[in-house]
Structures are given as C-alpha cells and as structure tokens.
From TrEMBL:
It comes from the Bacteria. Keywords: ATP-binding, Nucleotide-binding. Pfam families: ABC_tran. It comes from Pseudomonas cavernae. Gene3D superfamilies: P-loop containing nucleotide triphosphate hydrolases. Residues 8-237 form the ABC transporter domain. InterPro entries: AAA+_ATPase, ABC_transporter-like_ATP-bd, ABC_transporter-like_CS, P-loop_NTPase. One of its GO terms (molecular function) is ATP hydrolysis activity. SUPFAM superfamilies: P-loop containing nucleoside triphosphate hydrolases. This is ABC transporter ATP-binding protein. SMART domains: AAA (SM00382).
Length: 314
C-alpha cells in the first residue's frame, strides 16, 4: 500500500426511496489514511451514502469498491475490515463496559487471549479502565462515545466510517474524540466522517460537501476556501441589524451573519462591495466595509445557496 492508494471508489452512486432521490450519481474517491469529511445539512445524503459504502444498504445505481471489495457482492467480506459508528452509539446498556467489548470480540471472532489484550489496551487508550465494570447505560455522553469508538476499532479495521459521531456530546468530548481519530489516522487507518459542524469539517484532510444527494464540492478545506466563487466582506457599523435589513434581498448578497457587533456578508460578484456601500449610503447607514478572508461557512453557503443554520441544525 502507498499513500495514494484508493480505499473507497464510488462512481455514479445513487439511491432512491420511491420518488425520493437521497443520493444522486455521486462520484467519490478516498485515499489511504485520509480523514475525509462529509459536510452537509440533514437530508443531504450523508448517512445514506455511508450505509451504502459499508454494505448495509443496496444502491439503486452505480459502482462501489471499498478496500478492494465490490459492493454489494463482497459485503460480508468487507465487514471484517471496516468499523462503523453512528451518533446513536450502539451499545448494550445493561452490560458493563468490559462486557460490551467482550461481546463484540466474540462476534468479530477474535482469539480469546488476543481479545483480552486488545480490550485492556483500548480501555486504557480511551480512559475507560476505571469504568470497566460500570453499566454502559449509566455512562456520560462522552464516555459512551469513547466506548462506541473502542468497539468500532476493536478488530483494528483498515477503514472507519463514522456517521455524525459527535452530535450528542459536549465540546470537550468532541475535541478529545477528534484527537483519537487523528491518532488512528497516523497509524494508517482511513477515516470517513460525516458532520454538520464547521469546526469539525476544518479538521479533515479532505472534505466533500453534499447538497440534496449531490457532491457539490470536494477538496482540502484550504483548497475549497481558495476557490470560493463568492466574495466575503466584513461590515463594521454601529447598527448591524439595521444594515442587515437594508441589504436584505439584494441579488449581490448571498448570505449575511452577525458576528458580535459586525456583519459578515458574502457577496456574489467582485463589485458587490461597491453596491453594498451604495445601498448603505442611500439608507443613511454609516459603515466600513472591508474584504475579509474566506472560511468554510462561506464555501458552504456559496456551493449550496443555503443559510448556514440549515447545516448546523442537529
């Protein structure tokens, strides 16, 4: 294996549920040891895509190859080489922490002695050793998340698929969880993570933005920001809410968001700044409008033409 090897290759991938097209002719390539992020609002097709990639859902159209396995033909073989974790943390709440892991080790066919060593290693790595005899149902959100991750990597999968795994935990647990993910990537595990949090998307080595089942952007966060077709502006004024109302409905304004006492505006064209300044003068609003650096929020709004709130609503 080398760093350029494709671990996931999908071409023309589609999934329809009756009249609803959840995934629409998606092409996707993920290389070994990448941390590839899916960013998109609920209903954009992230979960459906992940379920097809790991063989849990049959595609309506398209070709899928994961770790050299053709899906759906080799779905059973693939299960031995991947880990899958969802936001629901599939744990047995009436079993203890260690009993959950022992059960998974049996299901995955691990040798008993090797399984015990691996479980002990993971309990230490994910700060669960002092909770080994506690019932999973009594753990905090962050502890449950760490236990679910330990279960997903128990058999040392080459590929780990995570479907919005941090949506139910606090910010500190999210940071610790991402540290664990980068540790796995450093050891050679490929990760595909879906999220609707911009700060998490920025952590990924590569990012795909989904909108209504289509991949509308693909690249590193830096590449996507550098290629932004819109023009981000920062508007400083004493009355940002009044300024926002004045600019509402302008075709040159793709999106606006108040940041403290300032207003962040995504302009559609290079001359948007001039037209915005003119509109504010006409409305008697004094403001200083300056160009500012692009961020992933700007990219999301530009490629989907959706308000940011739609992406970050759990």
């Amino acid at each position: 294996m080398n760093g350029a090897e494709l671990v996931i290759r999908a071409r023309g991938l589609s999934k329809r549920f009756g009249q609803l097209t959840a995934v629409d002719h998606l092409d996707l390539s993920v290389r070994r040891a990448e941390v590839f992020g899916f960013l998109g609002p609920n209903g954009s097709g992230k979960s459906t895509t992940i379920r097809m990639l790991c063989g849990l859902l049959l595609p309506s159209e398209g070709e899928i190859e994961v770790l050299g396995c053709q899906i759906p033909r080799d779905a059973e073989e693939l299960k031995r080489h991947i880990g899958y974790m969802t936001q629901k943390f599939s744990l047995y709440e009436d079993l203890s922490v260690v009993e959950n892991l022992e059960f998974l080790a049996t299901v995955q066919g691990l040798d008993k002695r090797a399984g015990r060593r691996r479980i002990a290693e993971l309990l230490e790595r994910y700060w669960l050793a002092d909770r080994r005899d506690q019932l999973a149902g009594t753990l905090s959100g962050g502890q449950r998340q760490r236990l679910a991750l330990a279960g997903a990597v128990l058999h040392q999968p080459a590929l780990l698929l995570l479907d919005e795994p941090t949506s139910a935990v606090d910010p500190q647990s999210r940071r610790e969880f991402w540290d664990s993910l980068f540790e796995l990537a450093e050891a050679g595990t490929t990760l595909l993570v879906s999220t609707h949090y911009m700060d998490e998307a920025e952590r990924c080595t590569r990012l795909g933005i989904l909108d209504t089942g289509r991949l509308v952007a693909d690249g590193s966060p830096r590449e996507l920001m550098d290629a932004l077709p819109g023009h981000p502006l920062l508007l400083e004024c004493a009355q940002p809410r009044q300024a926002q109302r004045a600019l509402q409905g302008m075709p040159q304004v793709l999106a606006m968001a108040q940041i403290g006492a300032a207003l962040r505006v995504l302009g559609a064209t290079a001359d948007a700044r001039e037209q915005i300044e003119q509109r504010l003068r006409e409305q008697g609003i004094g403001a200083q409008v300056e160009e500012t650096e692009a961020n992933l929020e700007d990219v999301f709004v530009s490629v989907t033409r959706k308000p940011l709130a739609e992406a970050q609503t759990p």
